[in-house]
Amino acid sequence: MRSTLQLTTYLLVAAAPFAVALSSGPKSCDAIDLCPGGVCPDGMELVGAPIRSAHYSLETSSTSWSPGELITLEIKVTQRQIQATRNAGAPQCECQQTDEPTNRRCPGPQCRRCPGNTNLEPDWVGMCDCESDIGPRCTFTTTPATPVMETAKYLGLLMYAVKANDPLETKVGSWEQPVEAAPPFAPMEGESCEGKALVQTGAQKKRYTERFYFRAPAAGTGAIVFRVLLKQGETLGGSFYWPVVAGGSADDDPPQAGVTGGDLELAEAAAAPQPLEWVRGAAGLSCDEVCAAEDRGCDDGSFADAASAQGLLEQVGDSYVCAPPLLSSCANYAPTTSAGGDGWCWFADPAACPETPAPQCNAQPPPEAGELSGLRFCPCTVGRRRLLRLSGDAPRAPAEEEGEEQEEEEEQEKKRQEQEKGRAEAGGEGGEAGGEAGELLPPAHARIGDAAHHAKPCPFGAVAISKQESAGPRRLAPQAAEGQSRAAPAPRVVAAPWALSLKAPLLAISSVLVLLLVALAAMHATARHRRAAPLAVVATHLLALEGAAGSEAQPEPQPWPQSLP
Fold it and tell me: Which helix (H) or strand (E) element contains residue 157?
């Protein structure tokens, strides 16, 4: 028994490093030198080294970036299929078994079977390296050889932005992805990633078009370059690819440290003052209240610019995440969004709702909308005064408007002074003065861009997403029930970008260890049974003697010996 426990302990200790290797994540976030010299590291030695491929493209409508701007990027699979690669990037072609297969002289050029025909099937058809000598009993199905094609959808992703012309490849900016039921991507923590690199959360095939939201860095960073590395094909095979930019080709230069190559580069643009800014308010607030909290005024006329899906994206897409498809609304307080961080946005649709009044600054979302759809997007001007102009008003001269603005500012300042004086006299008890000031200047509200509003990025580790979970809807459906709160998504642990390549061999090792432990337990049980057999024989004889004694007096019971001579 003691030896069995010792052996079990040794096996568990020996298996521990494999478990740690699978869960500790990648040691670096490097999309350039992942496979130095064209040879990928241990655990990925059967994966092809990165090459530039026109099967994938990185696109954006932005030509430059401004500090704090939200940039929308898309990775597109431009072709449905790509030639399969195995054995460290070797292209695959169709081959077949032509004679009785055997394992003689395998592996080697004189092998008596096709390389993939491990079950020795006489009519086997599969794939072989296109440029290899596949042996005397295996031939390609056609001449020239027919390439084996497979889906071009990628499994893995590593994407981040760096300063241009920086040999250190300093990572900048951050990523803001909508909350989903099974998020396919998430920021990765780590010494070299620092939450500024985006990676996949599982080994599922990604969509033909995936959308990403990048928050630009602070002013003075300079031009930035996006580094992207994709992993296509099975876990112990396939290849890494660098996508092209819009209009690029596979012949574009590969990325190098401090050199843009064929990657996407965006120049920094000076932040020009904007006369109008769209601000997202808190649940239940009118745009008059939202803009007043920003010390601005609301412009009724600007709602028409956001009265369509494309219009809303053009107005708020540089600041907030609105994930397509956008939804239409007949409410007079549209456009709105939810507070769940899921990217659901609604726009006012005058074509579908001709009888609904146009959105107004003083409209308030009803209480039942709450945080599900009651957060207004508001066009706030630089000025403090609201720019509402009724159709019956006559145009006023600039001097008259300046005089009114000055009078209003003086009145506001007078009220503030009276409020402070009242508080001082009352010894801190504001009373009615405080209420009046609260109506004049509503409390500040949280916005998506505020640091306090953001949830902490998901921690990085290793986990596998089940097929059942990944097959479900990838966006959270809006909940319309009154009073129903949106549950915060469960914290997810992000898988290492390329640690999944170790999954198959580690599972095999784990299976062998489990079988060995079961065998040892069976052996131990058998040994105990054999030791107990002589004791059972002795007990049988004693019972027979007791029966023969009949009615004779029974002896006093004796303690059972601990062991037999």
Answer: strand 154-163
| pLDDT tens-digit series, residues 128-169 | 999 888 878 899 999 899 999 999 999 999 999 999 999 999
* Cβ atoms of residues 201 and 494 within 8 Å: yes
208 in Cβ contact with 479 (< 8 Å) = no
Burial-class residue 265 by CB neighbours within 10 Å (0-12, 13-18, 19+): middle
Specify the pairing of strand 345-348 against strand 327-329. Answer: parallel
Q: For 548-557, which contacts have Cβ atoms below 8 Å and span 24 or more sequence positions? A: none
- DSSP structural state of residue 132: S
Q: CB within 8 A of 38, min separation 6: which ones?
A: 49
Residue linked to tokens 């145009």: 395
Q: How far apart are CA 32 and CA 43, in angstroms?
A: 18
Rounded-to-integer distance, Cα 246 and Cα 226, Å: 13
- CA–chain centroid gap for 551, Å, is 85
Q: Give the pTM.
A: 0.65
Please name every residue paired with 530 in a beta bridge, in sequence order, or none if there are none.
Answer: none
Amino acid at 194: E
Q: Return the percent helix, strand and coil in the chain, to nearest 5.
A: 25, 20, 50
